[in-house]
Task: structure prediction
Amino acid sequence: MSQVQEKSQFDFEWQTLSETTGAEILGIDLSKELSSHTIEQIVEVWQSSAVLLFRRQWLTELDMVRFAGYLGELEVMLRQDIASPYHRQVAYISNLLYEDGKNVGALGADELGWHTDQTYMREPSTGAMLYAVEVPELGGNTLFANQYVAYESLPNDIKVRINNLKGVFSYEYRLRNYKKEINKIGADVAKKDDANSKSRGETPEVTHPLVLTHPVTGRKALYADCATMMRIEGVDERESAELIEILEKVTAVNNQAVYEHKWQEGDLLMWDNSCVMHRRTNYEMKHPRFLKRITMFMPDHLFCRPY
Ligand SMILES: [Fe+2]
Result:
Protein backbone atom coordinates (compact mmCIF):
# COMPACT_ATOMS: atom_id res chain seq x y z
CA MET A 1 0.00 0.00 0.00
CA SER A 2 1.30 3.45 -0.84
CA GLN A 3 1.87 6.25 1.63
CA VAL A 4 -0.92 8.66 2.45
CA GLN A 5 -1.03 11.26 -0.29
CA GLU A 6 -1.43 14.88 0.62
CA LYS A 7 -2.23 16.69 -2.56
CA SER A 8 -2.60 20.39 -2.13
CA GLN A 9 -5.62 20.63 -4.40
CA PHE A 10 -7.61 18.13 -2.31
CA ASP A 11 -9.67 18.94 0.81
CA PHE A 12 -8.81 15.51 2.20
CA GLU A 13 -6.05 12.95 2.35
CA TRP A 14 -6.26 9.75 0.38
CA GLN A 15 -4.14 6.71 -0.29
CA THR A 16 -4.13 4.09 -2.99
CA LEU A 17 -5.19 0.57 -2.00
CA SER A 18 -3.17 -1.30 -4.63
CA GLU A 19 -0.91 -0.43 -7.52
CA THR A 20 -3.71 -0.04 -10.04
CA THR A 21 -7.07 -0.18 -8.30
CA GLY A 22 -8.78 1.35 -5.30
CA ALA A 23 -8.29 4.39 -3.09
CA GLU A 24 -9.18 5.11 0.51
CA ILE A 25 -10.35 8.59 1.37
CA LEU A 26 -9.51 9.65 4.90
CA GLY A 27 -11.05 12.12 7.29
CA ILE A 28 -14.48 12.53 5.73
CA ASP A 29 -17.61 11.91 7.81
CA LEU A 30 -20.27 10.83 5.32
CA SER A 31 -23.07 11.43 7.84
CA LYS A 32 -22.52 15.16 7.26
CA GLU A 33 -23.53 17.24 4.27
CA LEU A 34 -20.63 17.74 1.83
CA SER A 35 -19.81 20.76 -0.33
CA SER A 36 -19.93 20.50 -4.11
CA HIS A 37 -16.17 21.18 -4.09
CA THR A 38 -15.52 18.12 -1.91
CA ILE A 39 -17.85 16.01 -4.06
CA GLU A 40 -15.99 17.05 -7.22
CA GLN A 41 -12.75 15.89 -5.61
CA ILE A 42 -14.25 12.59 -4.45
CA VAL A 43 -15.45 12.02 -8.03
CA GLU A 44 -11.96 12.78 -9.32
CA VAL A 45 -10.38 10.15 -7.06
CA TRP A 46 -13.11 7.66 -7.97
CA GLN A 47 -12.56 8.23 -11.69
CA SER A 48 -8.89 7.39 -11.39
CA SER A 49 -9.13 4.52 -8.91
CA ALA A 50 -12.44 2.78 -9.84
CA VAL A 51 -12.96 1.56 -6.25
CA LEU A 52 -13.35 3.97 -3.36
CA LEU A 53 -13.25 3.21 0.36
CA PHE A 54 -14.32 5.23 3.42
CA ARG A 55 -13.68 3.44 6.71
CA ARG A 56 -15.25 3.78 10.18
CA GLN A 57 -18.48 5.39 8.99
CA TRP A 58 -21.58 5.49 11.18
CA LEU A 59 -24.42 5.97 8.73
CA THR A 60 -28.18 5.94 8.75
CA GLU A 61 -29.91 4.93 5.53
CA LEU A 62 -30.81 8.58 5.02
CA ASP A 63 -27.09 9.47 5.22
CA MET A 64 -26.36 6.85 2.53
CA VAL A 65 -29.16 8.16 0.31
CA ARG A 66 -27.94 11.74 0.68
CA PHE A 67 -24.31 10.89 -0.11
CA ALA A 68 -25.21 8.66 -3.08
CA GLY A 69 -27.50 11.42 -4.38
CA TYR A 70 -24.49 13.74 -4.69
CA LEU A 71 -22.94 11.29 -7.15
CA GLY A 72 -25.65 9.82 -9.36
CA GLU A 73 -29.31 9.06 -9.84
CA LEU A 74 -30.39 6.44 -7.32
CA GLU A 75 -31.96 3.23 -8.55
CA VAL A 76 -35.22 2.30 -6.83
CA MET A 77 -35.39 -1.36 -5.80
CA LEU A 78 -38.18 -3.20 -7.57
CA ARG A 79 -37.77 -6.24 -5.35
CA GLN A 80 -39.72 -5.44 -2.22
CA ASP A 81 -38.29 -8.49 -0.44
CA ILE A 82 -34.78 -6.99 -0.37
CA ALA A 83 -35.57 -3.26 -0.25
CA SER A 84 -35.32 -1.40 3.03
CA PRO A 85 -38.80 -0.68 4.44
CA TYR A 86 -37.61 2.92 5.00
CA HIS A 87 -35.85 3.81 1.74
CA ARG A 88 -36.67 1.98 -1.49
CA GLN A 89 -33.26 2.93 -2.90
CA VAL A 90 -31.50 0.86 -0.23
CA ALA A 91 -31.25 -2.91 -0.64
CA TYR A 92 -30.23 -5.38 2.04
CA ILE A 93 -27.61 -8.05 1.34
CA SER A 94 -27.54 -10.58 4.15
CA ASN A 95 -27.61 -14.21 5.21
CA LEU A 96 -29.71 -13.31 8.29
CA LEU A 97 -33.29 -14.56 8.63
CA TYR A 98 -36.40 -12.98 10.09
CA GLU A 99 -38.32 -14.95 12.73
CA ASP A 100 -40.61 -16.43 10.07
CA GLY A 101 -37.59 -17.85 8.24
CA LYS A 102 -37.63 -15.33 5.38
CA ASN A 103 -34.32 -13.83 4.29
CA VAL A 104 -33.57 -10.32 5.57
CA GLY A 105 -32.18 -9.42 2.13
CA ALA A 106 -30.59 -10.87 -0.96
CA LEU A 107 -28.05 -13.52 -0.11
CA GLY A 108 -25.68 -12.38 -2.84
CA ALA A 109 -25.04 -16.02 -3.67
CA ASP A 110 -24.41 -15.14 -7.33
CA GLU A 111 -21.44 -12.97 -6.37
CA LEU A 112 -18.93 -15.81 -6.15
CA GLY A 113 -17.66 -15.82 -9.73
CA TRP A 114 -16.14 -12.85 -11.61
CA HIS A 115 -18.89 -10.66 -13.01
CA THR A 116 -20.06 -7.12 -13.62
CA ASP A 117 -23.38 -6.12 -12.06
CA GLN A 118 -26.42 -5.73 -14.31
CA THR A 119 -24.73 -6.38 -17.67
CA TYR A 120 -27.94 -8.27 -18.60
CA MET A 121 -29.88 -5.00 -18.26
CA ARG A 122 -30.35 -2.67 -21.24
CA GLU A 123 -29.35 0.33 -19.10
CA PRO A 124 -27.28 -0.91 -16.15
CA SER A 125 -26.82 1.29 -13.09
CA THR A 126 -23.03 1.21 -12.97
CA GLY A 127 -22.36 2.97 -9.67
CA ALA A 128 -22.49 0.65 -6.65
CA MET A 129 -22.17 1.45 -2.96
CA LEU A 130 -22.02 -1.08 -0.11
CA TYR A 131 -22.07 -0.23 3.58
CA ALA A 132 -20.92 -2.96 5.95
CA VAL A 133 -23.08 -3.28 9.07
CA GLU A 134 -21.96 -6.76 10.15
CA VAL A 135 -19.33 -8.94 8.49
CA PRO A 136 -17.78 -12.32 9.26
CA GLU A 137 -14.23 -12.30 10.54
CA LEU A 138 -13.15 -14.78 7.89
CA GLY A 139 -14.17 -14.85 4.25
CA GLY A 140 -16.70 -12.77 2.36
CA ASN A 141 -13.93 -10.58 0.90
CA THR A 142 -14.71 -8.70 -2.32
CA LEU A 143 -12.17 -8.72 -5.15
CA PHE A 144 -12.04 -6.16 -7.95
CA ALA A 145 -10.30 -6.68 -11.29
CA ASN A 146 -9.36 -3.54 -13.21
CA GLN A 147 -10.75 -3.53 -16.75
CA TYR A 148 -8.61 -0.62 -17.99
CA VAL A 149 -5.59 -2.78 -17.32
CA ALA A 150 -7.38 -5.71 -18.94
CA TYR A 151 -7.88 -3.70 -22.14
CA GLU A 152 -4.34 -2.34 -22.09
CA SER A 153 -2.92 -5.84 -21.76
CA LEU A 154 -4.47 -6.96 -25.07
CA PRO A 155 -2.35 -7.20 -28.22
CA ASN A 156 -2.95 -4.30 -30.65
CA ASP A 157 -4.63 -6.42 -33.31
CA ILE A 158 -7.23 -7.64 -30.80
CA LYS A 159 -7.84 -4.07 -29.61
CA VAL A 160 -8.51 -3.04 -33.21
CA ARG A 161 -10.80 -6.04 -33.78
CA ILE A 162 -12.99 -5.38 -30.75
CA ASN A 163 -13.06 -1.57 -30.65
CA ASN A 164 -16.39 -1.30 -32.44
CA LEU A 165 -17.92 -4.66 -31.54
CA LYS A 166 -20.76 -5.35 -29.15
CA GLY A 167 -21.36 -8.24 -26.79
CA VAL A 168 -24.70 -10.02 -26.37
CA PHE A 169 -25.55 -10.43 -22.68
CA SER A 170 -28.12 -12.85 -21.30
CA TYR A 171 -29.40 -13.43 -17.79
CA GLU A 172 -30.26 -17.03 -18.71
CA TYR A 173 -26.61 -17.56 -19.65
CA ARG A 174 -25.42 -15.94 -16.41
CA LEU A 175 -27.77 -18.13 -14.42
CA ARG A 176 -26.32 -21.29 -15.96
CA ASN A 177 -22.77 -20.14 -15.14
CA TYR A 178 -23.80 -19.15 -11.64
CA LYS A 179 -25.37 -22.55 -10.97
CA LYS A 180 -22.15 -24.25 -12.09
CA GLU A 181 -20.24 -22.10 -9.60
CA ILE A 182 -22.76 -22.78 -6.82
CA ASN A 183 -22.57 -26.53 -7.36
CA LYS A 184 -18.96 -26.37 -6.26
CA ILE A 185 -20.03 -24.81 -2.97
CA GLY A 186 -23.36 -26.33 -1.91
CA ALA A 187 -26.95 -26.53 -3.12
CA ASP A 188 -28.49 -24.84 -0.06
CA VAL A 189 -27.05 -21.50 -1.19
CA ALA A 190 -28.61 -21.80 -4.65
CA LYS A 191 -32.07 -22.63 -3.35
CA LYS A 192 -32.43 -19.46 -1.28
CA ASP A 193 -32.03 -17.04 -4.20
CA ASP A 194 -34.13 -19.10 -6.58
CA ALA A 195 -37.12 -16.73 -6.59
CA ASN A 196 -34.89 -13.93 -7.82
CA SER A 197 -33.35 -16.15 -10.47
CA LYS A 198 -36.75 -17.11 -11.86
CA SER A 199 -37.99 -13.54 -12.32
CA ARG A 200 -34.68 -12.40 -13.83
CA GLY A 201 -34.70 -15.39 -16.17
CA GLU A 202 -37.34 -13.58 -18.21
CA THR A 203 -34.97 -10.68 -18.97
CA PRO A 204 -34.38 -10.46 -22.76
CA GLU A 205 -30.88 -10.48 -24.28
CA VAL A 206 -29.20 -7.07 -24.58
CA THR A 207 -26.09 -5.70 -26.30
CA HIS A 208 -23.32 -3.42 -24.98
CA PRO A 209 -20.07 -2.14 -26.51
CA LEU A 210 -17.07 -4.31 -25.65
CA VAL A 211 -14.91 -1.26 -25.09
CA LEU A 212 -15.91 1.82 -23.09
CA THR A 213 -14.01 5.11 -23.29
CA HIS A 214 -13.95 7.28 -20.20
CA PRO A 215 -15.45 10.71 -21.00
CA VAL A 216 -12.89 12.59 -18.88
CA THR A 217 -9.67 10.57 -18.88
CA GLY A 218 -10.09 9.02 -22.35
CA ARG A 219 -8.89 5.69 -20.94
CA LYS A 220 -10.45 2.58 -22.47
CA ALA A 221 -11.92 -0.23 -20.40
CA LEU A 222 -13.09 -3.68 -21.43
CA TYR A 223 -16.77 -4.26 -20.78
CA ALA A 224 -16.81 -7.99 -21.31
CA ASP A 225 -18.38 -9.79 -18.36
CA CYS A 226 -17.87 -13.30 -19.75
CA ALA A 227 -20.13 -14.81 -17.06
CA THR A 228 -23.05 -13.08 -18.83
CA MET A 229 -21.78 -12.39 -22.36
CA MET A 230 -22.84 -15.36 -24.46
CA ARG A 231 -21.55 -14.20 -27.84
CA ILE A 232 -20.21 -11.27 -29.82
CA GLU A 233 -22.53 -9.57 -32.27
CA GLY A 234 -21.71 -9.31 -35.97
CA VAL A 235 -19.02 -12.01 -36.17
CA ASP A 236 -19.38 -15.72 -36.88
CA GLU A 237 -19.67 -18.28 -34.10
CA ARG A 238 -16.06 -19.40 -34.35
CA GLU A 239 -14.63 -15.88 -34.16
CA SER A 240 -17.00 -15.00 -31.33
CA ALA A 241 -15.86 -18.01 -29.28
CA GLU A 242 -12.22 -17.27 -30.05
CA LEU A 243 -12.52 -13.62 -28.95
CA ILE A 244 -14.47 -14.50 -25.81
CA GLU A 245 -11.75 -16.95 -24.82
CA ILE A 246 -9.12 -14.22 -25.20
CA LEU A 247 -11.21 -11.62 -23.34
CA GLU A 248 -12.09 -13.94 -20.48
CA LYS A 249 -8.40 -14.51 -19.77
CA VAL A 250 -7.55 -10.82 -19.47
CA THR A 251 -10.75 -9.65 -17.76
CA ALA A 252 -10.63 -12.15 -14.95
CA VAL A 253 -8.47 -15.27 -15.11
CA ASN A 254 -5.08 -13.65 -15.74
CA ASN A 255 -5.90 -10.18 -14.51
CA GLN A 256 -2.99 -9.09 -12.31
CA ALA A 257 -4.60 -5.77 -11.40
CA VAL A 258 -6.78 -7.02 -8.57
CA TYR A 259 -7.64 -5.35 -5.29
CA GLU A 260 -9.02 -7.66 -2.59
CA HIS A 261 -11.13 -5.92 0.01
CA LYS A 262 -11.23 -7.40 3.51
CA TRP A 263 -14.37 -5.89 5.03
CA GLN A 264 -14.54 -4.12 8.36
CA GLU A 265 -17.76 -2.99 9.96
CA GLY A 266 -18.35 0.66 9.11
CA ASP A 267 -16.76 0.40 5.65
CA LEU A 268 -18.47 2.24 2.85
CA LEU A 269 -17.12 0.90 -0.43
CA MET A 270 -18.06 2.13 -3.90
CA TRP A 271 -17.11 0.79 -7.28
CA ASP A 272 -17.67 1.66 -10.91
CA ASN A 273 -19.08 -1.34 -12.78
CA SER A 274 -18.04 0.20 -16.09
CA CYS A 275 -14.36 -0.39 -15.36
CA VAL A 276 -14.01 -3.15 -12.73
CA MET A 277 -15.31 -6.68 -12.47
CA HIS A 278 -15.79 -8.19 -9.02
CA ARG A 279 -16.44 -11.34 -7.08
CA ARG A 280 -16.56 -12.26 -3.42
CA THR A 281 -15.00 -15.13 -1.55
CA ASN A 282 -17.11 -17.69 0.24
CA TYR A 283 -17.81 -17.56 3.97
CA GLU A 284 -19.49 -19.84 6.48
CA MET A 285 -23.24 -19.26 6.50
CA LYS A 286 -23.38 -19.55 10.30
CA HIS A 287 -21.56 -16.20 10.59
CA PRO A 288 -23.83 -13.15 10.21
CA ARG A 289 -23.20 -10.86 7.24
CA PHE A 290 -25.28 -7.75 6.67
CA LEU A 291 -24.57 -5.02 4.15
CA LYS A 292 -26.69 -2.20 2.78
CA ARG A 293 -26.46 -1.39 -0.91
CA ILE A 294 -27.33 1.54 -3.15
CA THR A 295 -26.95 1.46 -6.93
CA MET A 296 -26.66 4.59 -9.04
CA PHE A 297 -27.03 5.66 -12.66
CA MET A 298 -23.88 7.71 -13.18
CA PRO A 299 -23.78 10.96 -15.19
CA ASP A 300 -22.31 10.23 -18.63
CA HIS A 301 -20.12 13.35 -18.71
CA LEU A 302 -18.23 12.03 -15.66
CA PHE A 303 -18.35 8.22 -15.94
CA CYS A 304 -18.49 5.57 -18.68
CA ARG A 305 -21.91 4.20 -19.50
CA PRO A 306 -22.42 1.02 -21.51
CA TYR A 307 -25.51 2.39 -23.27
FE1 LIG B 1 -22.07 -8.17 -7.95
The pocket of fe (ii) ion is lined by residues 111, 115, 117, 278 (CB under 6 Å).
